[in-house]
Amino acid sequence: MSVTTEYKQARDDYERLCELHDDSPPEDLTGGFVIDETCFELLRRPTMAHAGDTYGQLIDHGAVAGFEGVGPVRWSDPEVAEILERHGCDRP
Q1: Domain assignment of residue 79, given as a range
Q2: Could you give the C-alpha distances from 51 to 24, 35, 41, 87, in angstroms and in order?
């Protein structure tokens, strides 16, 4: 898979996960994840590969922390489970 395809897949998966959780981002992006630090790292290395990795990190974080105002990830939704399993996330 090309870097462009991997980036697009990660971006699409992250955006779809948020949609499937009432259009909410992952919980605790300023505490447990530290989004500012992650964004500054992306600015230091602005490549499509690094951006795809960053989306992957956000997906991993959402799988563990849940989604704002929603709570734990909705593993019972087959589409959610498929996305998270594609990214190597384990069920709790």
Answers
A1: 3-86
A2: 20, 13, 10, 15
Nearby residues of 89 by Cβ (< 8 Å), 6 or more positions away = 59, 60, 63
Q: Is residue 92 included in any domain, yes or no? A: no
Phi, psi (5° rounding) for residue 3?
A: -60, -40
DSSP state of 21: T
CB 66 within 8 A of CB 27: yes
Question: How confident is the model at residue 56, as a pLDDT?
Answer: 92
pLDDT reported for residue 50: 86
Q: Look up residue 61 and give its two tokens.
A: 């974080």
Phi, psi values for residue 51, rounded to 5°: -65, -40
CA atoms within 13 A on the CB side of 60: 10
Per-residue pLDDT tens digits for 28-78: 776 666 667 778 888 888 889 889 988 998 999 999 999 999 999 999 999
